[in-house]
Amino acid sequence: PIQFGAPPETIKDAMQLGAEVPRIFVVGKERFNLRFGTNMADFEFPGFYNFFLKGSQTTVVGSAEALEEIRQVMHETLEGPAPDQYFQDDEYSPFCDPAIYAARPDLHKEICFFKEPRNGRRIAVETLFALEPFQERPEEGDKVIPLRHKIACGLEPEALAAAFKFEETKGWVAIVDRGDWYDVLADGEVVASVPDWLASAMPDPPYVLMPTVSVGPPAFEAPEFGITVLGAADGFAKSEATAGFILWMRGRGVLVDPPAHSAHFLRLNGISSRRITHVILTHTHSDHDAGTFQKILIEQRVTVLTTRTIMAAFVRKYALVSGMSPDFLQRLFSFHSVKIGEPVHFQGGSIKFFYSLHILPCIGFRAELAGRSIVYSADTCFNPEVLDQLEERGILSAERKASLCSDCSVQPADLLLHEAGVPPTHTPISALAALPESIRRNVRLIHMSDERAAGSGFAKVRPGLEHTICIDAEPPRHAEAKQILQILQATDLFRSFDVASACDVLACIVPRSYTAGAIICRAGEAGPALLRIVRSGAVQYAGISGATRTLGYCDYFGEGEVMLTDGRHRATATAMTDVEMLEIERGDVQYLLRRRPQLLHRIQQRAQLLDHAPSWAAIGANSVFASFSMSQVTQLQSVMREETVRCGDVVWKKGKEVCDSVLVGDAELAFRELPDASGVSDEDLEPFRAGALLVNVYALEQRLPHEMTLTAVTAGTIFRIASADLFELLDHNPGAFIWMRDALVVC
Fold first, then answer.
1. What is the distance between the alpha carbons of residues 59 and 76, in angstroms, rounded to a whole number?
2. Which of 2, 101, 209, 598 gives a 20 to 30 Å CA spacing to 704?
3. What are the pLDDT digits (tens) for 204-247?
4. DSSP letter at 305?
């Protein structure tokens, strides 16, 4: 078979279909699906599968430019960082225990061990992959398809094609790049024509291997301490997502190596992204980092916890994969550079990291909360026999070996989550079976197939919210106040409040409960003017404008009633599950905001847009904003300034400084000078209609002048977003930033 495009976990597609994993792949012209943050040229596991399990190469066909970038990505994966790209000596705190520093790894030596030839086969890009570029006319260089091969395939001499011979059939096969599609020829006959867009297409919603809820919104309550497994398999198990989970601490989550499309899975299951604000990246194999990059691109800004060595590798890899510059990529998230052996404080607990023994630099961790503990091995080779050999060869120091044997992946804990992938690069079950009973009884397996787990003598963790593992932990002092403060911090209303102001908010808040099905308020009816913040559960919010949204953790509503004076509710809110709410009366909200005039102005502005149909229509007509969550829409409407324009009005004037962006409502806009420009098509001259966002991020940053005059073709409404407000919005929503970075119009 020949496959076009290669999304993460693609070998499982073939395995589930009962088909042979392809050995020939064609790279599409769009190698990165921006909408879903997905690498569509992820050849790591096809290469591993065909080389290690089938003893054959994987052929990748594409443009010379694409293949060079793929070669660099695979070189990073197979060879690891260059010698000057390891920073492990600087990844230890000057205050760490001297014994921990003495046990630091020589990562370069350890990785070189795993690269040693196996069964006489060298592990390198050129042994795993045959990179075949589409080639042009024979006279244009030495590395071209010989003319006789083209004749054998039935191709015209000038065809842009790749041709090769199948050993099994002795027949010639050619793949021809026709621009917008590809022809596949067998012995000169066209057997398939494939459009290029299919090589980068993703279903909407994306297909996920993780289990989903059955009916309706879940009423999931995050534990004080524990884990929810999203995937428990390795990269070769056909019916389950790769290993990744949520570490819960005091109701907040840290994603650990999230499987592909985890962010979509969590949204589908009603888990707010504001509950999960951090990601731990253990290493940069695609079965561990694909979901991390997607999480970075979807919804709010996240903090990534990893070492400097691993982060540098991640940035190098995904700059190549996405086509974004390293500098731009690093603007999309916050990087917390962890120190080995030094605790990272989170939610009243701590997370302490160690380097495991793996093919690439890789970290595991120990999380502690209220005297309880969870240890995650990450990918590692825990095998005392192998460790003894590595010490004898000078690859491990005595201190490093002792640490790997006693205080890294295997150590006393209430839950020891240990990988058991395919040896020799992973941990054999026999090594875990030999552990002392005091450690062994708390071991749970991850990163392996169900078939290998059966009969191992250990339980394997199960994916799904319903299989969340809870570790009992004493609640903290002032638990309710801390939880409320965290909710306030997650809303755009209160996150800028200082400590004194936050205390004022706490004094005003009244907690209230609603049972599933209860009407919290009804549109058009008189009732108490309250600002309501969802503490837990799900609420259906149906505005007068007709827009219906599902509200969850940290979403709020009621600002219309609080800011306007007619005394009637602006929407119908219904409890979809049992709901816990935080409520603040109108007078208290106005008092709290009075000292913040800019914030007060934003809330008043949003209150006026809540039941304003043109604003919702403009948001819904824009491909980026239409996918926003309610919290993101709230932020957006808070900075949209409505303006009525007449036919002929100037919206932007040529030569004036760029100071805002424009979202088109029910007006129509056009650039005055465009019809006189050369090379302009009829399509280019079409006016901008509802939902079009006219934005030039670079010009806004550099304070450049407008190059053309934008005028209203018809009367109607537009919405301006000031420069400072736009950058604040994009800072909290990196996915939107990516769509706008190089665009002038986002429709």
1. 18
2. 598
3. 667 777 766 544 455 678 899 999 999 999 988 888 889 999 99
4. E
